[in-house]
Target: ABC transporter related
Amino acid sequence: MIELTGIHRTYTRPTGESVAALADFSLRITRGELVAIIGASGSGKSTLMNILGLLDRPERGTYRFDGHDVADLDVAAQARFRNQHVGFVFQAFHLLPRTTALENVELPLLYSERASTDGLARRALEAVGLADRIEHTPSELSGGQQQRVAIARALVNEPELLLADEPTGNLDADSAREILDLFVALNRAGRTIVLVTHDPATAARAQRVVRLERGRLASDSVARVADPGSLSAVGRVADPAPASARPARTNPPASPPKRPTTEPAAEEEQR
Ligand SMILES: Nc1ncnc2c1ncn2[C@@H]1O[C@H](COP(=O)(O)OP(=O)(O)O)[C@@H](O)[C@H]1O
Ligand SMILES: [Mg+2]
Model:
């Protein structure tokens, strides 16, 4: 679904010093994955999210989305791409104040090219458990509820890709866990999600953890999950150790063991 190759993004500090926010960075993401991006502050996580969401352009490198080169689209085409294919969730919610939950969620529909948008915003709010809060303004909602509104807004156009940059960073532990449960449920329902976090417990609930270090890929691993069912146990983390301390296998995973077969013809099917 996503293929970043050889991405470079450099910023110039006010002092004139140049910083490689991403350097020779490559990553593939397959449809249906839930990927946690971790790394120290300043390691390039937000830069990566902005590039994935076409909010920023790399100086070098290619970005293919479903096989299409999207890095070189013009500004209008990039905006259309974002509206149709990507939903964003940010740490600070970014809801319009003095505007109801329903109106906030309806906003992306103004730019949608859909024939009908009737009921979509309401259904998106129902999907995040806020059916009874649609007329509330952000100041009348808790932090966790505001983030749900933001998630409903991100989902209202039914994007294939959901990008979340530290979505639980401003929330208390209970709300954070609820929001995380929601992301896991959305992923189970088929949504591809890339989620930045500095919380090891959050990262532990993703199947795949990508760690950045000074703009480079430091590790890319599939988490060891003994019992995938345990992921749904609210409040429980499969393994309390930080992702980096856990045994991990490199991604992509080795091909699954071949099914034993007695048919000699199966030999011919080998690639
Ligand atoms: N707009 C900007 N101008 C200058 N430097 C920036 C800008 N955005 C990010 N950087 C620098 O790029 C590096 C990566 O930043 P960022 O992607 O925000 O990291 P993270 O999200 O992992 O904390 C940091 O050194 C940061 O200071
Ligand atoms: Mg950041």
Notes: Residues 226-271 have pLDDT under 50 and may be disordered.
